[in-house]
């Protein structure tokens, strides 16, 4: 049957209008899903999976892609002589305000650069050097024996646990390490459980806010991101000390309200 030309034009017009409206709705729907997905990614405490960046593992936590772990093959970089001037570790250690009887957990201790320097400051206490790489702990053991340090204990952690007893530490210190934790939420839950009443958590992280800090992108963190992730496990921000040349030094304590 042949359609009337006017009716055909009207039908065609209606068809174009419907198609246009459908297209607009589809674009709006896709935009809404994308926007919602982004919001969820920023607010969720669950892990997301993405295509890995050049220095990331493809797992996202609270909007941050987790960085690749530096292997024991790069251990020499941790003990480089220039670190004294580049990072000013003596300032960081002094800022910890340690008591002689404190038990300090150095999480992600590596070769024990900080553990070895903290040990003399806690003669009635001890340092628990935690690392997930047995090779790192073996290198640290060699250093401890060579230096005659006897109040540092080695602890082999797991990617999702520091393997520390509950209520056992006065301070948990993480220097340029937290951003590499494969499972930061679970690891920090273990750290929080290990804190004694009044215990503190201190993180040193390269400043992501400063593009002049020549460290790979995922190996730096902003103050806002660190605070967001610590709040997720029930830690309350105390202060941020920015006396170090390139790093934030962030102090936390357990919140009475618990995890956010």
Quick summary:
By secondary structure, the protein is α/β, with parallel strands linked by helices.
Question: How would you explain this protein's 3D organization?
Answer:
This protein is α/β, with parallel strands linked by helices. The protein is built from 8 helices and 11 strands. Strands 4, 5, 6, 7, 8, 9, 10 and 11 form an 8-stranded mixed beta sheet that branches. Helix 7 links the parallel strand 7 and strand 8.
Q: Topology, please?
A:
Elements lengths: L4 H39 L3 E3 L6 E6 L2 E4 L7 H4 L4 H5 L1 H7 L7 E5 L5 H6 L7 E6 L2 H14 L4 E5 L12 E7 L8 H11 E13 L12 E2 L1 H9 L3 E7 L5 E8 L6
Parallel strand pairs: 4-5, 4-7, 5-6, 7-8, 8-9
Antiparallel strand pairs: 1-2, 2-3, 8-11, 10-11
Largest sheet: 8 strands, mixed
The helix fraction, in percent, is 25-40%
Task: Give unreliable regions as ranges.
Answer: 1-44
Terminus-to-terminus distance: 69 Å
Oligomeric organization of the protein chains: single chain
Number of strands: 11
In terms of structural class, how would the helical and strand content be classed? alpha/beta
**Shape, principal axes of CA atoms:** globular
- Mean of pLDDT: 84
């Amino acid at each position: 049957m042949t359609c009337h030309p006017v009716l055909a034009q009207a039908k065609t017009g209606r068809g174009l209008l419907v198609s246009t409206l459908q297209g607009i709705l589809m674009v709006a729907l896709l935009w809404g899903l994308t926007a919602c997905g982004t919001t969820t990614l920023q607010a969720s405490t669950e892990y997301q999976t993405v295509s890995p960046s050049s220095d990331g593992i493809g797992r996202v936590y609270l909007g941050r892609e987790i960085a690749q772990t530096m292997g024991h093959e790069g251990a020499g970089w941790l003990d480089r002589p220039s670190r004294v001037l580049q990072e000013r570790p003596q300032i960081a250690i002094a800022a910890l305000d340690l008591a002689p009887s404190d038990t300090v957990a150095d999480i992600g201790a590596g070769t024990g650069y900080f553990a070895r320097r903290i040990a003399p400051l806690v003669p009635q206490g001890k340092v628990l050097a935690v690392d997930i790489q047995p090779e790192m702990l073996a290198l640290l053991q060699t250093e401890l024996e060579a230096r005659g340090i006897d109040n540092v204990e080695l602890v082999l952690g797991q990617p999702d646990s520091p393997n520390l007893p509950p209520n056992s530490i006065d301070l948990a210190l993480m220097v340029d390490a937290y951003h590499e934790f494969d499972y930061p939420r679970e690891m920090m839950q273990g750290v929080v459980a290990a804190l004694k009443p009044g215990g503190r958590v201190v993180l040193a992280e390269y400043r992501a806010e400063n593009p002049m800090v020549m460290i790979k992108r995922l190996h730096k963190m902003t103050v806002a991101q660190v605070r967001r992730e610590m709040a997720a496990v029930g830690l309350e921000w105390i202060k941020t000390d920015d006396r170090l040349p390139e790093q934030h030094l962030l102090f936390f304590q357990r919140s009475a309200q618990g995890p956010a």
